[in-house]
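Help!! Second protein's tokens look totally different from the first
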Amino acid sequence: MSLDGTYTGLKASIADWLHRSDMTAIIPDLIVLAEARIARDLRLRRQISSTTLTTVAGTQSVALPSDFLEVENLSVSSTSPARNLVYLNIEALDVKYPSGSYTGTPVAYTLEGNSLLLGPTPDAAYSIGMLYYARLAALSSTPTNWLLSNHPNIYLFGALAEAGDYVRDIQMGTTWDAKYQQGIKHLQDADDRAMFSGSELRVRNL
């Protein structure tokens, strides 16, 4: 079987499951679409990454990491003690901390596009410690990743569901979409249970 946990194997397996030899050029696109969906659907402990952002005095925004999906925790780590930042929606941040109105140590944040907006605007260079959910490395740039190695069904059925739209086979797409959603739910539920129980994550592939 070609589903061996590698990008090359995944492409070959998708072609095998589709019983098509004329979709070689489109299969990488199907995988990209599946990856975009996985990024929307999964929030696992294995996705949590850490980084330190540095503010610029007088500048409200800080660029987010290129693989950023969602904030888990933010704090001003260069103060003693470290101070957690409170999330406000962009309208509330604009009202409470209008850009350019005054500066100080940030106490709140919001997100705008690919930037983190802080309130008040930093009056100095602060270190912002961030835990965040990171997007998985695209398979087009790496031969494998931990999700493909351990749960290849999610990639396979996600790409096959996208193929249903491409070949205009609604029934096929619906069948594979259900299997994709089942795989996502089983994995997310298991990870959530393990987070609260403190046990290691053990999930069998479907």
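Here's the second one for comparison:
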Amino acid sequence: MNINLLETITQLRLYVGCLGEKNQFGWWASSFFTPSSNAFLEPLFSRTQLLAQCNGATQAAALVHDERIGVGHVYHLFRLPEDLEQGLHRELHDPKFGNMIPDNVSPTRVLESLGKLALTQKAEDEGPMRIGSISDLYLVDIWKQVAGLYTSAFQQEKEIYPYYSELS
């Protein structure tokens, strides 16, 4: 599997997972990327704290995405095929991701980082948005377009839910 693909999706999941939390843009009710969360998680998950934070935010985000999009023959940033999920899990063990989300999260800094990952896309509408077919899940440039859509949505304070499916 393409390492660049996994790295891109991992970064995207971390940034969007963090920005969507209730103390940032409030798309979902979790708070895994806060200083108080860090103080709680660090003793329990000293070597895998980022993985624990990402997993917690992913579960919260997946619930909201599934509620808006539906489930069954669709995938989105927070619910992917098993091979991609396993690859993301391995990626989060890499120390290079350790400092991506600082202890004192600044939405501006995280949004800037998300924007650097993105290909320019503008979120015109709110809600669910079909991005492509399931085979497109393995294309890096499509994920960079998704990063652009999320960046635009956060900047415009719109909620979007990009997804992939075989059905249009």
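Reply: Different proteins will give different token patterns, so don't panic. Helices lie at 3-19, 35-44, 49-69, 82-91, 107-117, 140-156.
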